[in-house]
Amino acid sequence: MALVVAQEVPTSSSMAVPHGPAGVGEARHRMREQLRRGGVAESVIDDAVLVLSELLSNACKHGRPLGGALAGDGDVRAAWRVDADGRLIVEVTDGGGPTRPAPATPSVTAHGGRGLNIITALCEDWGVRDHVDGEVTVWVVVHGDVHDPDAGHRRDDFASRVAAPPVSSLPGLGLADAFDDLD
């Protein structure tokens, strides 16, 4: 007979992340480790880590560091928690920026602009909270109940929700065109 000891995800976890790409990996690692210890389904953890990466990347690209520091010198704040209802919530707070976070409609060939669309497709809900001091928090409900045995199965149809149009539907672009530069 095996003895199973239930562990709970810490009520909350918050960390300062350098304003730039340096701290994203550390934040992802810490989140993955804590959620695993808390017994969260691996598919939910994968989604949460992707969401955290997108939010941190957006905060560093579009937002200022906290506390009025110069870009690259300060921090942004990453936080995640499982609330009393079992909802996994991820938040990233930065010092605000010139634009509001909003999903974009990038071209098929664009190198970015899909992050919030990916978050919308993967998660239950998301939004933006403005603070009096100019800080901005983007929050995401990654999953509504991490204790549900089917947690994380929403991703089954993810590809159909975010798929690019087929190359054949793009005027003037055929398969042969992709190989023109390989001479």
UniProtKB/TrEMBL annotation:
Signal sequence segment: none
GO molecular function, one term: ATP binding
Keyword Kinase: yes
InterPro entries: Anti-sigma-factor_SerPK, HATPase_C_sf, HATPase_dom
Annotated CDD domains: HATPase_RsbW-like (cd16936)
Keyword annotations of the record: ATP-binding, Kinase, Nucleotide-binding, Serine/threonine-protein kinase, Transferase
Pfam families noted in UniProt: HATPase_c_2 (PF13581)
Residue intervals of the Histidine kinase/HSP90-like ATPase domain: 21-139
Domain of life (superkingdom): Bacteria
Claim: rRNA processing is one of the keywords in the record: no
Name of this chain's protein: ATP-binding protein
